[in-house]
Amino acid sequence: MPQLPDDLDAVAVRTWCSLALEALGRERAEIDAINVYPIADGDTGTNLYLTVESAAAAVEAVFAAHETGTSTPATADAVRAMAHGALIGARGNSGTILAQLLRGMAGVLADAGDAAHLRLALTSAADAARQAVAHPVEGTVLTVAAAAAEAAQGDERELRAVVRAAYEGALAALARTPEQLAVLGRAGVVDAGGRGLVAVLGALVETVTGQAPARGPRTASGSAAKAPVTVDGGSVVGLPVGGTPVEGVTEGGLAAGGLLVERPLDCPEDGDAGPAFEVIYLLEAGDEQVARLRTRLDALGDSLVVVGGDGLWHVHVHVDDAGAAVEAGVEAGRPYRIRITHFATESGHDVRVQAEPAQRAVVVVVPGDGLAGLCTEAGATTVIARPGEPPASGELVDAIRRAHAREVVLLPNDAALRHTAAAAAEQARTEGVRVALVPTRAAVQGIAALAVHEPDRGFDEDVVAMTAAAGATRYAELAVAERQSWTMAGICQAGDILGLIDGDVAVIGADVPHTARTVLDRMLAAGGELVTLVLGEDVPDSLADALEEHVREGHLAVDTVVYRGGHQRAPLLIGVE
Fold first, then answer.
1. d(CA 70, CA 76)
2. Are 105 and 124 within 8 A, CB to CB?
3. Which tens digits make up the pLDDT trace of 441-469?
4. Nearest CA to 568 among 366, 383, 393?
5. Which of the four pLDDT bands, split at 50, 70 and 90, describes residue 143?
6. With contact defined as beta carbons under 8 Å apart, do 201 and 167 qualify?
7. How far apart are the first and last CA of the chain?
8. Max CA pair span of the chain
9. Is 286 exposed, middle or buried (0-12, 13-18, 19+ CB in 10 A)?
10. Which residue, 86, 81, 83, is CA-closest to 63?
11. What pLDDT shows up at residue 83?
């Protein structure tokens, strides 16, 4: 049995993220089913799951990058990674608020993870989340978070006691949400976001005690029973079962004289269908610009939540004019990962308007805006992997859904995304989409595969052709050494330019032009017909001209094509076919 932590160190944070992801995976369908506020779009559980998935992936990346072998990462690194991962991967209103809760906790737990700091962290989290919401509403996840923080403010000196108190306080507050928010009471459910937070706190209980909160009674069908709560003489459902019984709930799961409602009633706000669009984006901007942005977006719509700090923000708002919301972000700074969802309201139900699916589509991960535009022009659905922000499987699944096709070819373009892409493909297959994963390891291989894609031929034949094109493309990239290190090409110093061929350091140079020429010569020594150059944002066009001339003079009958990659990790990507 693993040793239980006395405080929240890096290993405990990693375990918490993993258990929270498992908990939300078990419960997301039920949480989706009780989602009626602020928009009854039935995706709160899914959004929370994807947000925590991104947080967990960021923590795993910290452990993977830790090179000492015997020790573990610092707690501060783990909790900051958790918060950053949640921020960049936040989905929907609930996920955005959860990201701010984790950010508020991380700011305190980076100093220490004992009981006293956890109490402060819970308070900081609740305060930060409330401040991030333009118009806080009681009976929501904000209320549950505040109750958890308040319940933890006792005299307990043990971490386990503080965590249990926070969980039980959140559970009791969740049971009261239908009394505080009329739309929940009418629908017969508790707040979906609050229930998700209780699941996350339950995972924290399991992390520090070794025991998960009891799951409670089961129905005859084997599904988790919903423990109802008495409200105005009736009963409402949606409470995550288990844990300490709360007032108004009987031990058997039914309030006296109440009815167990298995699904929420249709219950939109009276006479208010709500805005037509949900707009989400990440934003690079300063504090002053974000303050003005909040004011402008607040005037445009509702459900406004802006979280983050230190120059990076996650913006979420519901509006009728999606273009105006994006334009406001452009004026404030640099928005990216822009997601716009259209809501069509019919008889009180939020549904997404979908056309007939296409027969085939390609989903491709690209390292910058420039290649995203190129691949979009070629008909592909793109996912941008920005430096330090690899997409989670949920983001790839979402892209497959956006492609809206019966057959999808997935190009991850990064060896590190192999398992993530495989998980996304498997998830999409369970939804009825035929997915083929072509294991491209670099963006230039993806470009080569996309160039031979022909949607009119058979699926298997198309996949074979794309795989062959990718496999026939050698790839390289230039990188800047961050510190002295041993490499396959010798010892490099901080600031050296590294030429990586097929993933291994092959050249160590002093500048980009000389290193690029050396890399090209080595790659073309084995033959080639086409050189592809993808230039980073700050690389001048003169470099591409010089490299084209170098290829033309030294390697007859070899053509060169040049693309602008935009903001990408490497200053130069090279492909040779």
1. 18
2. yes
3. 999 999 999 999 998 889 999 999 999 99
4. 366
5. very high
6. yes
7. 53
8. 89
9. exposed
10. 81
11. 92
Q: What is the pLDDT of residue 241?
A: 36
Contacts of 336 (CB under 8 A, 6+ apart): 281, 282, 283, 284, 369, 384, 386
65 by DSSP, 3-state: which?
Answer: helix
Q: What is the 3-state secondary structure (H, E, C) of 188-251?
A: CECCHHHHHHHHHHHHHHHHHHCCCCCCCCECCCCCECCEEEEECCEEEEEECCCCCCCCCCCC
The rounded distance, in Å, linking the Cα atoms of 13 and 6 is: 12
Name the one residue in this structure whose structure tokens are 């219950």.
Answer: 267
pLDDT score of 423: 84
β pairing state of 277-284 and 312-319:
antiparallel
- Kindly tell me the burial class for residue 493, based on how many C-beta atoms sit within 10 Å of its own C-beta (0-12, 13-18, 19 or more): exposed
DSSP-assigned letters across all residues of 332-358:
HSEEEEEEEEE-EEETTEEE----PPE
User: What element of type H or E holds 485?
Assistant: strand 485-487
Alpha helices (H) along 236-339: 287-300, 322-332
Q: Among 511, 534, 482, which residue's Cα sits nearest to residue 369? A: 534
Residues near 392 by Cβ (< 8 Å), separated by ≥ 6?
50, 53, 54, 57, 89, 420
Q: Which of 291, 282, 308, 367 is nearest to 80 (CA)?
A: 308
The helix or strand, by DSSP H or E, that contains position 383, with its residue range, turns out to be strand 381-384
Closest to 512 in 3D by CA, of 487, 486, 485, 538: 538
Three-state DSSP class for residue 532: strand
The neighbour count for residue 481, using CB atoms within 10 Å, is: 17
- Per-residue pLDDT tens over the stretch 495-547: 899 999 988 898 998 899 999 999 999 988 888 889 999 888 888 888 889 99
**pLDDT interval class at 369 (50, 70, 90):** confident
